[in-house]
User: Fold these one by one.
Assistant:
Number 1:
Amino acid sequence: MSRPTLRRRLTMLTAGMVAIAVVGLSLGVWLLLRIQLYDEVESSLREKVARVAHRTDPLKLATIPVWIRPDIDTLFGVVSRQGITQRPGFQRERLPLGPVDIAIAKRQQRDSVRKVTVGDTNYLMLTVRGETGQAIQIARDLTETDQTLQRFAVVLVAADAVVVVLTVSLGYALTRRGLRSVESVRRAAEHVARTQDLTAAVPVARRDPAEMASVARSVNAMLTALATSQDAQRQLVDDAGHELATPLTSLRTNIELLLRAEKHPERVLAAEDRRKLLEDLRAQIGELSTLTEEVVELARDQGAHEEHIELDFSSVLDAAVSRARARTPDVPFEVSSEPVTVHGKRAALERALLNLLDNAAKFSPDGERVEVWLRPGENTAAIEVADRGPGVSEEELDRVFERFHRSADARALPGSGLGLSIVAQIVAAHDGSAWLTHREGGGTVAHIELPLPDR
Ligand SMILES: Nc1ncnc2c1ncn2[C@@H]1O[C@H](COP(=O)(O)OP(=O)(O)OP(=O)(O)O)[C@@H](O)[C@H]1O
Ligand SMILES: [Mg+2]
């Protein structure tokens, strides 16, 4: 069974309430009119009976007396104390007799007004005490009055029906407008479910009711939050892939070197070289395990919960350099540093430095030294990583920090263009800055500057 729609429910509820109200009102009006009309009939009867009460002759009349005309719809009767009824000679109909009428004749009751039926006709009958010691009955035909009431009832029922139908159609149209925003929220949710596109915001129109506008805004806020978290996840997957790619490449190169030596006995490696290669391999596998742990850590809490602590920047640099040496054993790194305390996240800063060292090692020509300085300044601690590589063109100095941006010359070398964007992100989170400059005599200098903690 399909569920009733909110629209139908609201419409039915309003229509039901309107119907109860108009039917109640109509009934009230109709009853009031009935009371009014019957009152009029009653007072005309009282007026007439006042004229008859003192006469002794009405019953003796054989023709309709002039004072009755033109009210030939009026019937008379006289009731004695013994309950004997008499009627005028000109009148065929006899009015019914009840115990009330006898009680009135006996002076036990003042008067009575009631509805009676004579033949097929309804009458309103008034019984009063007559002056000569009987009860006088006078009754008026109610046909016309009842017809008026009936016609009025028909008009009222028709009017009620029109009002209810109008309410239903108006209610349906109005709820349609009111629920339009529910419809747009539904459409947006469906679109998201179908396309996974989280950018589809629910439109908020100025005429939307406050509740619906707030629902739409909440849904939009939720979509934005989901999109942000989705972006963060994508970025994490990219970054994790990037972090693992560099050590895997050097691992593969060394293994290929060993395999080649195995396949070509004439190019057999000297025992010393072989031992060094194996040691490099061990160091690289160690580096890979460290990195895997880091990536898992990063995925678990996206680095958000690593505490900012006071740490010696030079020890972070040393750790990064020894990892870079393990990755690229052929590149000579020359480090000049002195202890300086900064405030930050150790693992993140190490990752940033390692990325700069990786770049320098990757772009350095064979055998060229990579020089690294850590210089404490007045308010900052500055690290420079300098190589003798091809350098970066003037117009690309900034762009290389964008995600996936790589200069055309760099595309022959392995990499994905993510390293510097990770550096920029980490450094920014430490209120520092990172940039590249040309090195005098050729090459690149990568800079990182962090603020010193307040003393
Ligand atoms: N030391 C450098 N010498 C010359 N060019 C550099 C140097 N460092 C960065 N670049 C340029 O900046 C680009 C972006 O560097 P980034 O570290 O972000 O990516 P990548 O090293 O190419 O790849 P990935 O770091 O993802 O492995 C490089 O492709 C290169 O063109
Ligand atoms: Mg890089």
Note: The pocket of magnesium ion (ligand 2) is lined by residues 355, 358-359, 415, 419 (CB under 6 Å).
Number 2:
Amino acid sequence: MTAIIQSQDNENVVWHSHNIDKAYRSDQKKQKPCVMWFTGLSGAGKSTVAGALENRLAELGYHTYLLDGDNVRHGLCRDLGFSSEDRRENIRRIGEVAKLMADAGLIVLTAFISPHREERQLVRELLPEGEFLEVFVDTPLGECEKRDPKGLYKKARAGEIKQFTGIDSEYQAPEHPEIHLQAGDKSVTELVELSLCSLKERQIIR
Ligand SMILES: Nc1ncnc2c1ncn2[C@@H]1O[C@H](COP(=O)(O)OP(=O)(O)OP(=O)(O)O)[C@@H](O)[C@H]1O
Ligand SMILES: [Mg+2]
């Protein structure tokens, strides 16, 4: 089947639907695709928890892909800087890639600070209802600053990094996250178990 898409730049771009579709690919993998969008301050534990959850899902036989932080800036988004326009475009591209991966039937995990509600909403709107799971890794600033594994808070406090989230740039906490991990005083194992329970409740996994 084909459909004419009235795209912004080209009125004559035609969408071609193929036989092997998202439903087929997800059935094959015995899972429901979704995008688990981990958000939280630097040092909150997004990469750690998303990585440990991905390990656990792999052990259970599920098919995943983890898109993590700065990695995308080496390729997909290497032309982008850190102006608000570029940050928005960075998140938009990541959202589009996550959407393609969910279309491939995968459970996609992303780990970006993504401090603005508006940018997270933009990604939510790219995906069908129920496929975007906002995961708030809610670790108090004091704890993140104590951990400071990259030494970034120290630099931000010394004025060597400007516009650092939580210090001189706002982090807008999710208002209604699908999964709220109060992560400051819980072990990674506990946080992984809480996330797995939520995936089961939503019938993403069995
Ligand atoms: N639940 C936890 N309990 C104790 N330490 C943790 C926990 N989760 C993560 N950590 C530790 O906190 C530090 C920061 O974790 P991580 O790198 O996952 O943060 P992040 O949210 O991905 O940060 P960034 O946005 O800078 O990439 C690491 O040293 C990690 O080992
Ligand atoms: Mg990280």
Note: Helices lie at 22-29, 46-59, 84-103, 117-126, 141-147, 152-157, 188-201.
